[in-house]
Design goal:
With 250 residues, the protein is an alpha/beta fold. Helices cover 41% and strands 18% of the residues. It has one domain: NAD(P)-binding Rossmann-like Domain (Rossmann fold). The protein is built from 8 helices and 7 strands; from the N terminus they run E-H-E-H-E-H-E-H-E-H-E-H-H-H-E. It has a 7-stranded parallel β-sheet with strand order 3-2-1-4-5-6-7, with helices on both faces. Bound molecules: NADP nicotinamide-adenine-dinucleotide phosphate (NAP).
């Protein structure tokens, strides 16, 4: 029996990348996992299959985030499979990496809609589904705490907003013994960072050099931190910003 046996987890953006790593890890820990996806149903099904092959239980739910009504639509889909959630991981997110003079309002609105508004309203409409003693884990970014990549400013601003959400929500949900935390990855090899990591011959080595540990992060590096916060062992950590950057901010 895993440490999360009997719990239900919802991981947004679990079709690929960090979200997939988190979903697989929580599945191995014994949680039943709602594998949320936006556009890639086939990839979400692969995540579900991987969890099941490892002996776990999972189902896929697909709703594109970033427009009005998205959160309610996601919960309606979720309700067809489960009657409550213990662990909500707000992981789905998009980036914007260009100089400020090249960013238009539509792009700015989009990154805030997906990265900030969707997590906020997923919690807002999930309050009755979240079980007491549960967990909300928001996937932030080390870029909320460093100006090392100023072309990612609008993206970093979304993560700063998400961090304030984690902090203040912890006070709101504390009386129900629900913990709320931000987990901030550094550079992790996913589709999201493919261009960055392959921009030049030495791009990978440059990215690795940001970390005190001298390597690019893997999705499991973040999933293990989320697993700890989701477990009973993480019960006394709330309102916190957890650095999962491999020492990239030092
Ligand atoms: N990779 C890094 O270095 C890094 C560093 C710091 C923080 N982060 C954060 O970690 C999270 C995951 O990043 P990642 O690198 O794993 O990204 P990724 O490989 O691009 O995967 C993104 C995931 O989010 C989903 N998603 C994106 N936009 C969506 C939308 N509008 N509606 C619904 N689902 C959507 C995607 O689903 P579909 O493919 O099904 O559409 C996919 O499952 C993000 O919040 C990101 O900001 C990443």
């Amino acid at each position: 029996m895993g440490v999360l046996a009997g719990r239900t987890a919802l991981v947004t953006g679990a079709s690929r990348g960090i979200g997939r790593g988190i979903a697989e890890r929580l599945g191995r820990d014994g949680a039943r996992v709602a594998v949320h996806y936006g556009r890639n149903e086939a990839a979400a099904k692969e995540t579900v299959a991987a969890i099941e092959e490892a002996g776990g239980s999972a189902f896929a739910i697909g709703v594109e985030l970033g427009s009005p009504g998205d959160a309610e639509a996601l919960w309606e889909e979720f309700d067809r499979h489960a009657d409550g959630v213990d662990i909500l991981v707000n992981n789905a997110g998009i980036g914007v990496s260009r100089p400020i003079e090249e960013i238009d309002e539509a792009e700015y609105d989009r990154v805030f809609a997906v990265n900030v508004k969707a997590p906020f309203f997923l919690v807002r409409h999930g309050l009755t589904r979240l079980r007491d003693g549960g967990r909300v884990i928001n996937i932030s970014s080390g870029l909320a705490r460093t100006a090392a990549m100023p072309n990612n400013m609008a993206y970093a601003m979304t993560k700063g907003a998400l961090d304030v959400f984690s902090r203040d929500l912890s006070k709101v949900l504390g009386p129900r013994s629900i913990t709320v935390n931000s987990v901030a990855p550094g550079i992790i090899a996913t589709d999201n960072t493919y261009e960055l990591l392959h921009a030049s011959e030495d791009a990978w080595a440059q990215a690795a050099a940001y970390s005190a540990l001298g390597r690019v992060g893997e999705t499991a590096d973040v999933a293990d931190v989320v697993s700890f916060l989701a477990s009973d062992a993480g019960r006394w950590v709330t309102g916190s910003w957890v650095d999962a950057t491999g020492g990239s901010l030092t």
